[in-house]
Structure prediction request, 510 residues.
Amino acid sequence: MLILITLVNIAVFTAVGSKLIGTFREQSQESFVQLNEQLLRTVRSLLRAGPGAENVASLLEFPGWVNVEDAILVQNNFARGVVGPSPQGLVLNPAGRAGRSASMDEQAVFTALATAARDGIAIPVEGGFALPLRVDGRIWGASWMQMPAGRSLQDLVRYLLPWFLGSTAALVLGSVLLLRGVVLDPLERLTQAARRMSDGDLSARAPETGRGDEISELVSTFNGMAERVEGFSRTLEQRVEEALAQARDAEQAAMIQRQLAAMGELAAGIAHEINNPLGGLINAAGALKNDALPAERRERYLGLLTDGLERIRTTVGQVLRMAPRETEPVQVDLLETVRDGIALVAHRAQGAGVEVVHETAGREPGSVTVLGARNELGQVVLNLLVNAIDALEGGVGAEFGSASPKVVVRLLPGVAEVHVEVRDNGPGADPELLPRLRDPFFSTKEVGRGTGLGLSIVARVVDLHGGRLDLESTPGGGFTARARLPRQGSWSGGAGPGGSPAGKNAEAAG
Prediction:
């Protein structure tokens, strides 16, 4: 803006200066005439005193010469030469010839002097004027005087500079104040509002100017855009909340379905465990109806009834310990939990030809305990065993050769943690897939063979117990799942179905 105003002022003052230069030239010409009249009076007085060298010296001492840059004084005595008139009489150079420019055309000056002396007129030449000198009604000679170079320009600058500076300062100040009120302040407020929006404050608005100009239209457009963005954001948040609620409901329903499917898979094993003793119980009960049965045999049949019923009670107890229900955190014996899980998958493992080995079976009951929910920790063990058996249905890994399918369960107690480790010698998985195995609905099984929720449920339950699930595998080298459970974990509820505290906490965690 300053540059633009300065350029405009320069253009204006150049036009004014051009006109003033002409005025200064007229004034300079008048100065020449006045100086020439003074010179003429001096020449007249010297000539009346009579000719002589002292008169020439007095003529050179004329005080007016200090006001000129260069001067030539000649008598009216010219001869016509080849290039022009040539003075034959008195020729004086009062300012000297030493400082005279080499490019000056003296012959043009002599021609102008001859013309001025002949016609009695002033003639501009070589930056000065040739003027006639009249003495007692006749032309005595002529003088050429050149004013100091740049004097008119200096006078012009000296005259115009204060006005130029004042005008520029006034225009700049007025323009700044005008732009500040009309453009800069509204744009600054608009910038602040845009910055607040970029920082996440969608309620940011710029104050309306109400002037109806382009800036006002820009502010109104921004505010309208911000209003629409805020509306879209509210709508999007509502849609996202609805989608998350639907996803949580779908995930919860899928988890319930997965648990029911797991229990259905175990139904055959449970029926087998109960059906075998039931057959013996029926036979024993039929025999006891015989009143003639010997006392010794009656005692033996009663023992069979007691053993069979105890076996059924044990099987039902194992199922109940695995079933989801409302519960409070208690000290859970993981050794008992592992045994229950192995018992419940024993029938399925036998049908799949998989050997399940419990390497920590010799530990004393109560030696490996953690704080948590008994049924949900049972789900952890049960899902890990089912996943391992499912993996071995595809055969043994390449690194194990002709070995038989095997699942090894170990409990690794520590001071602060207990590790429940389930390892199989199946085909394994790519290391790149391990992080995704914890995601809900992700499965490496073929379509229809799994929901992809087994390890997801395990990871959630372990996380809610304050622990961590580690997965290790290499292609062809088997698969290891290790649940790291703190002995005194910060248990915050389970991942069971909705309706129980466990289900609610699982929904919140989702």
Remarks:
- Confidence is low (pLDDT under 50) at residues 446-452, 494-510.
- The CA atoms of residues 224 and 345 lie 65 Å apart.
- The longest helix spans residues 214-288.
- The two ends are 60 Å apart (CA to CA).
